[in-house]
């Protein structure tokens, strides 16, 4: 039996490595539209409270996050690592840096493939938000020149008529110390000038690379920048945003720049205070319930959404607004109410998230139970086999949230 398992594992590994090193998006099993038929999307810009195209037509973003692809979270991904930094460190110590990189290449080559962008388009969406970390862009000299993953995603979105929001989910030193920043060991972005300056430079590199792409909707400067209680300056997020804004504008005066609030409408400044132009403000709306209300209580979620909408309307300035992450858990009446409310007020969204590890979960459009990697004890071959089996079509199935959006978006096929 052990011999049989070993042979099976070896076969899976060979298949995974072959697919991994064949390059991104070249798998004939992953259908995508004929490239020749793909039309260039119109560049979007901010105009008052709206996003508009070059002809002045209002465009409302309706999309999904590719969470778990370029920054893993153990609750939703096939890994037991507490954060990405730990996974990098442990796998490097066990197998060496080159093999660690090979393992993550296998994972990333399989977790999101060309077919996934077709799935997103076919479900009636028009945008993808892509969380990434500073590690994803680093070359061997730790400069920010590695764009193969983002280039692949932007190209597949272009083929499918999807806009892309590039989201810095994990900054150097961490902006919040959460697992979704990739680093739970520190919160040292805002207090460490080297980290700060490095991330400003990163955005200048990203902007220079994507400045000519109409597929890229905008640059989401920093995911959930909570900071920490003892910080060296008031509102460090605003100063950081301003430095990034200036660095981007030196390279790119075309694209929208996106600033996130933590957590309320009033937690961001009037753009005019900083002379920001062509910007969009982003909010993450999670109604976690309280001691008197379950997360699936419709009245609680309705009141939560209603308050958010009131606060957005009460702002004394005009800026496009965007719900970059949200869920309504298992109450699909609440889902409908929330999305109706956002869209009726011209507020776009990207739902969290595309796929999660779970038998049945409202968090993902796709659910699945691929084997989790034990970074401490699994062999290289076992990790490669497990991460080589995380393709959506292989190990995931559609969820109740998928069914909701299929109905809500009026999708009749698939």
How would you describe this protein?
This protein is α/β, with parallel strands linked by helices and 414 residues long. It has one domain: Glycosidases (TIM Barrel), CATH 3.20.20.80. The chain is 38% helix and 15% strand. The protein contains 13 helices and 13 strands. It has helices spanning 2-21, 84-95, 97-111, 114-122, 134-137, 148-160, 193-210, 236-251, 298-313, 332-344, 380-387, 392-395, 400-408, and strands at residues 45-47, 50-52, 62-65, 127-133, 163-170, 216-220, 256-260, 279-286, 321-327, 348-351, 355-357, 366-368, 396-398. An 8-stranded parallel β-barrel has the order 3-4-5-6-7-8-9-10, surrounded by 5 helices. Strands 11-12-13 form a 3-stranded mixed sheet. Helix 7 links the parallel strand 5 and strand 6. Helix 2 (84-95) packs across helix 3, helix 3 packs parallel to helix 11 and helix 9 (298-313) runs parallel beside helix 10 (332-344). The protein is globular. The protein starts with a helix and ends in a 6-residue tail after the last helix. Residues 1-32 have low confidence and may be disordered.
Key features?
414 residues; alpha/beta; TIM Barrel; 8-stranded parallel β-barrel; 13 strands; 15% strand; globular; disordered N terminus
């Amino acid at each position: 039996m052990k011999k049989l398992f070993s042979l099976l594992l070896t076969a899976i590994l060979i298949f995974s490595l072959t697919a991994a090193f064949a390059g991104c998006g070249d798998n004939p099993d992953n259908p995508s539209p004929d490239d020749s038929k793909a039309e260039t999307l119109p560049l979007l810009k901010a105009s008052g409270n709206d996003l508009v195209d070059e002809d002045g037509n209002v465009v409302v973003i309706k999309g999904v996050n590719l969470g778990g692809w370029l920054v893993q979270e153990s609750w939703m991904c096939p890994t037991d690592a507490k954060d990405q930094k730990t996974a990098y460190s442990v796998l490097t110590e066990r197998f060496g840096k080159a093999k660690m990189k090979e393992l993550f290449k296998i994972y990333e080559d399989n977790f999101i493939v060309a077919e996934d962008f077709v799935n997103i388009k076919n479900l009636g969406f028009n945008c993808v938000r892509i969380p990434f970390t500073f590690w994803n862009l680093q070359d061997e000299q730790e400069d920010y020149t590695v764009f193969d993953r983002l280039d692949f995603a932007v190209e597949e979105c272009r083929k499918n008529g999807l806009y892309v929001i590039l989201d810095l989910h994990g900054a150097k030193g961490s902006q919040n110390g959460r697992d979704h920043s990739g680093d739970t060991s520190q919160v040292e972005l805002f207090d460490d000038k080297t980290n700060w300056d490095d991330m400003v430079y990163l955005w200048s590199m990203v902007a220079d690379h994507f400045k000519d792409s109409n597929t890229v909707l905008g640059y989401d400067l920093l995911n959930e920048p909570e900071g920490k209680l003892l910080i060296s300056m008031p509102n460090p997020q605003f100063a950081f945003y301003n430095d990034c804004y200036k660095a981007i504008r030196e390279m790119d005066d075309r694209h929208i720049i996106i600033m996130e609030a933590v957590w309320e409408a009033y937690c961001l400044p009037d753009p005019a205070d900083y002379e920001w132009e062509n910007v969009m403000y982003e909010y993450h709306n999670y109604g976690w319930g309280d001691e008197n209300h379950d997360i699936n209580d419709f009245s609680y979620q309705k009141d939560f959404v209603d308050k958010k909408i009131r606060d957005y309307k009460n702002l004394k300035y005009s800026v496009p607004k965007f719900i970059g992450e949200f869920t309504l858990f298992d109450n699909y009446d609440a889902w409908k109410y929330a999305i109706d409310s956002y869209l009726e007020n011209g507020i776009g969204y990207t739902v969290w998230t595309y796929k999660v590890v779970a038998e049945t979960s409202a968090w993902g459009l796709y659910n699945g139970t691929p084997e989790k990697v034990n970074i401490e004890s699994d062999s290289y071959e076992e990790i490669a086999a497990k991460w080589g089996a995380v393709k959506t079509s292989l190990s995931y199935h559609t969820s109740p949230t998928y069914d909701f959006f299929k109905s809500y978006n009026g999708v009749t096929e698939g």
